[in-house]
Amino acid sequence: MAASHQQYTPLQPHHPGADPRRLFHRLTIASSLSILCFSLVYLLSGRLCESELKENNKIRPSTRDFLVPGPDWPYGRNSASLASMVGEGAHGSGQPAADTNSSGKEWTATRRLPQALIIGVKKGGTRALLEFLRLHPDIRALGSEPHFFDRHYARGLDWYRSMMPKALGGQIVIEKTPRYFVTVDTPARVHAMSQDIKLIVVVRDPVTRAISDYTQIISKTPDIPSFERLAFKNHTTGQIDSQWSPLWIGLYAQHMERWLAWFPRAQIHLVSGERLISDPAGELRKVQDFLGLQRIVTDKHFYFNKTKGFPCLKKPEGSSKPHCLGKTKGRTHVSIDPVVIQKLRAFYKPHNQRFYQMAGQDFGWQ
Questions:
Q1: What's the domain range around 173?
Q2: pLDDT tens per residue across span 88-118
Q3: Where is the active site (predicted)?
């Protein structure tokens, strides 16, 4: 009997890669693990960056801190652009604007009473000094003359404060009214406001100052008598009228005595009107020291205008023209009889000597 014979076919080995489902399963697992690892790395990196940023913020000043005016502040003239950024409230409300930097310190611009006054003298160079000081970023100066202590005292300190420009902490508020120096009641009134206020007086050769004063008067009222007629009570005897305003203002010792009755000499700084023209940087250095300011206004800010005979400010950044004082400054003086000038010099000599003793310096007026 014939037995049926079946041919034996060995089984082929089963290779894992041959099964698509298993391959796909393994790839999915590998991808998931990769995503998980990447996420962990990203999370840890983010934590480290956040921690580092917090540390940096503790020591890094706010962006606003870099806006504080300093030696290189390009528009030092009264820092008006800075005040406009931080000194006005929302929608121009006029209220103090406050901001808080990362250190929690508030930036506030407010109106406050002045810490320094330019009190005199008329036609001595007070306008020039004020304009030069306004270059300093730590000075906030009122441009007009408020005449508070001599004319508007009855309006009160609130009115006076409202006239002042807004200032940040650390800035010095200053105003000038040359009439203060010669007004009898002013020293006591200023003292009542502040016993620590700093006072600045620009003085000039009283004879030259009187002629300059008369030149300004005659430009506005050309029909007044001549200088020679007004300067003397009696031309025959040569008696000088010391009560005539242009001559009376030049009695510096008399006016200084009233101020020294209320304020110590250390609180009164005297500026030479002559040196303010010949060496403005030198005089400004002394004024900045007196006010406790950094010496920022230097000789690099000035040039001498030969036409006007006065120093002018060099072109500020962003301006195409230099800045000089107005047309009324440096005008040609009226011609005065030399004999009259000699009599005036003789009249002022003892007054000047007394003033030199009070001032502790000789201004060299003939």
A1: 110-206+250-330
A2: 333 333 334 444 444 333 478 999 999 999 9
A3: 123 (for sulfotransferase activity)
Active site residues: 123
In a domain, 12, yes or no: no
From the DSSP assignment, how many helices (H) and strands (E) are in the chain? 12, 13
Q: How many CB atoms lie within 10 A of CB 101?
A: 13
Q: Which residues does the annotation place in the binding site?
A: 123-127, 204, 212, 329-333
On the CB side of 107, CA atoms within 13 Å amount to 21
Residue 174 has phi, psi (to 5 degrees) of -140, 145
- Per the annotation, where are the binding residues for 3'-phosphoadenylyl sulfate? 123-127, 204, 212, 329-333
Judge if pTM exceeds 0.85.
Answer: no
CATH number at residue 160: 3.40.50.300
Residue 305 lies in a domain: yes
Q: Per-residue confidence at 293, pLDDT binned at 50, 70, 90?
A: very high
Task: Write the pLDDT tens digit of every residue in 175-195.
Answer: 999 999 999 999 999 999 999
Q: Count how many domains the chain has.
A: 1
